[in-house]
From TrEMBL:
Organism taxonomic ancestry: Eukaryota, Viridiplantae, Streptophyta, Embryophyta, Tracheophyta
A GO biological-process term: cell differentiation
Region (Disordered) location: 390-423, 449-472
UniProt cross-references to InterPro entries, sorted A to Z: Frigida
This protein's record includes keyword Glycoprotein: no
Domain of life: Eukaryota
This protein's name: FRIGIDA-like protein
Family from the record: Belongs to the Frigida family.
Matching Pfam families: Frigida (PF07899)
Keyword entries, A-Z: Developmental protein, Differentiation, Flowering
Length: 519
């Protein structure tokens, strides 16, 4: 029995060992399969990347060869281009010197008749101080200055130097009269950025270094602490725009902190030049933050300009922003009229708000060439309707104010009597004649008669005398007073009344019998 028990225990231990080894083999098999799958995946990934690298290398070889060929051609043509540039500079220099030495060109042309000629005269002499001061004095001709300044700067020997000299003179020798003249520098700097205002010119390194110094001087003079309490620096609207124009025109983005430049853009994003300047400076992906902030603050129109110049229309569809702005403006206009109980003032404010929004949308669509994506025909009809309603509200007030008085119809008749105009008389002239138009009296209805009594209170001026007093009064005659009397009292003329006269009009005089009173 003991041997059998020992044998069964041994068999049981062997079976347990076999089961343990079987489980180990199964786990090893699973681990091997997972490792094999992982190795296969890595192999496929490496193979794919290797093939992609081979394709990139194959495509890179032609482009590299093209770049090498282009560089070689530029190297070969560098001497010719340098010679051509030197010849052009010499030709321009000789022409300017000949013009300066000419007797007729020693004094500037008449600025009243030849504005462009005078701008060109300053620019070709590189008189930056005289140029910006002359432009500042001609703000009334701003439309002509925009084109004339750009052409004059292009005609100068060194446009970047002329402009940076003008900015420096503006800072060092300002005109202290409290007038904002930053627009003059903006016009000069804009002439360096091309017609679109988004392309910086090629500037010599020496001019760029001078521009850095001038920009730092500008920042020091016009910079101030921000109101956010974070201790950062900021600028006013026009000063910030001019500073960013300097950065864009002379490619100074690497010389200043990007955070500071972005802060200026975000603070003054509502200025129409900021979108162009952001593109000229080189911001693109960074402008998404500015656009998001503008959208969140209900400034969709400004955001669309940034989208247009930054090329982020796929990320921020302009048509959806326009629809959102239009709907928001209509809701706001409706709320204003509703809160004001549709009073005339509330309706006027509501219509003005809607018209402003419609004009902004139409201008934005035309400026950004969005006619294919957003139709403005319905908006233009709505704007025309609102403008017509506004004009109609103004016209009745004007006509009512200057309208002549119409005669009031007399009771019992459908029409008013038409009287001839009164004749002018001087202090020495008698009253109007009563014999010119006696037929007019027939228009007066029998129910009412108009009588003119010479004195106040219905008497002829003898009211202060006693009844027994005779003789005419010495009081000078006064203007006739008009009264309307019914038929039942016609003939009851107050004591002392003289013949009834229609002094206000050319009626014949009528003599009524005077009542007899004892004298």
């Amino acid at each position: 029995m003991a041997a059998e028990a020992l044998a069964s225990d041994r068999i049981k231990r062997h079976i347990d060992d076999l089961e343990t080894q079987h489980s180990l083999l199964a786990s090893c098999i699973l681990l091997w399969k997972s490792l094999s799958n992982r190795l296969d995946a890595l192999h496929q990934t490496i193979t794919g990347r290797s093939e992609a690298l081979d394709a990139d290398l194959q495509s890179l070889d032609p482009s590299t060869q093209q770049a090498v060929d282009s560089i070689s051609q530029r190297d070969f043509s560098l001497c010719d281009r340098e010679s051509a540039a030197s010849a052009a500079i010499r030709e321009l220099r000789d022409a300017i010197l000949a013009e300066i030495e000419h007797p007729a060109a020693r004094r500037p042309p008449d600025g009243e008749t030849d504005l462009r000629g005078l701008l060109r005269w300053y620019a070709r002499r590189m008189d930056s101080a005289g140029l910006w001061r002359f432009v500042a004095s001609r703000r009334r001709t701003l439309g002509m200055l925009r084109k004339g300044v750009a052409d004059a700067v292009d005609d100068s020997i060194d446009p970047p130097r002329l402009v940076i000299d003008a900015v420096e003179d503006f800072l060092v020798h300002p005109i202290e009269d409290g007038t904002d003249r930053n627009w003059v520098l903006g016009m000069l700097l804009r002439s360096l950025l091309g017609s679109e205002g988004t392309k910086a010119p090629n500037v010599a390194e020496s001019i760029r270094e001078r521009a850095v110094v001038v920009a730092e001087l500008w920042k020091k003079k016009f910079g101030r602490k921000s109101e956010g309490g974070e201790g950062g620096e900021t600028m006013g609207g026009s000063e910030a725009q001019t500073f960013l124009q300097i950065v864009a025109a002379f490619d100074l983005r690497p010389r200043f902190e990007e955070e500071f430049l972005m802060m200026l853009l975000m603070e003054h994003a509502s200025r129409k030049e900021m979108a162009k300047l952001a593109s000229a400076i080189g911001f693109r992906e960074q402008l998404a933050v500015v656009i998001d902030k503008l959208i969140n603050t209900n400034k969709e129109i400004e955001a669309i300009y940034f989208v247009h110049y930054s090329g982020l229309s796929n990320r921020f569809p302009p048509e959806s922003l326009l629809k959102e702005y239009h709907q928001a403006s209509r809701r706001k206009a409706s709320s204003i009229s509703k809160d004001g109980n549709n009073s005339p003032a509330a309706l006027r404010e509501s219509n003005n708000l809607e018209m402003t929004a419609l004009r902004s949308i139409i201008k934005c669509v035309e400026s950004c060439n969005l006619e294919a994506k957003f139709s403005t025909s319905e908006l233009k009809r709505r704007l025309a309707k609102l403008e017509k309603a506004k004009a109609d509200r103004k016209n009745p007030a004007v006509s009512k104010k200057f309208r002549s008085k119409r005669p009031v119809p007399i009771s019992g008749t459908g029409t008013a009597p038409t009287f001839p105009a009164k004749k002018a008389r001087t202090s020495n002239a008698p009253f109007a004649s009563f014999s010119q138009n006696s037929a007019v009296a027939s228009h007066i209805p029998p129910a009412h008669h108009a009588y003119g009594f010479p004195g106040q209170g219905g008497s002829d001026g003898r009211a202060s005398a006693s009844y027994a007093t005779s003789g005419p009064s010495q009081i000078p005659p006064t203007a006739a007073q008009w009264y309307y009397m019914d038929d039942d009292i016609v003939g009851r003329v107050p004591y002392g009344g003289s013949a009834i006269s229609y002094g206000g009009h050319d009626y014949p005089s009528v003599t009524l019998g005077q009542p007899s009173y004892p004298h």
